[in-house]
Specification:
9-stranded antiparallel sheet, mainly beta, Histone H3 K4-specific methyltransferase SET7/9 N-terminal domain, 91 residues, flat
Length: 91
């Protein structure tokens, strides 16, 4: 994936090797993770627009696969789930 930009000129996406980064229109990093052959793979980290951690999850071929943890705005775990090829296997 090549770099893309919002209409305001702010970078929307950027790829460095096999790491793809998505940005909010206001500039902060929205999400970052491994992107191979146009597919999300492995660990991805998602942030809120204020920069705080929102969730960490794993992908296999664009499907949730492995542990997913979501955090509230104070950093406390809201929920933790496990997926296999997009389907929840453990809550």
């Amino acid at each position: 994936m090549k770099e893309s930009f919002f209409k305001n000129g702010q970078k929307a996406t950027s790829q460095n090797g096999d790491v793809l980064t998505y940005f909010y229109k206001s500039g902060p990093v929205k999400a970052r993770g491994k992107f191979v052959a146009d597919l999300m793979q492995g660990k991805w980290v998602f942030n809120r627009e204020d920069g705080s951690l929102w969730q960490i999850g794993h992908f296999k071929d664009n499907m949730k696969h492995g542990e997913w943890i979501r955090y509230d705005k104070t950093g406390k775990v809201e929920y933790q789930e496990c997926f296999v090829l997009g389907k929840i296997v453990k809550k």
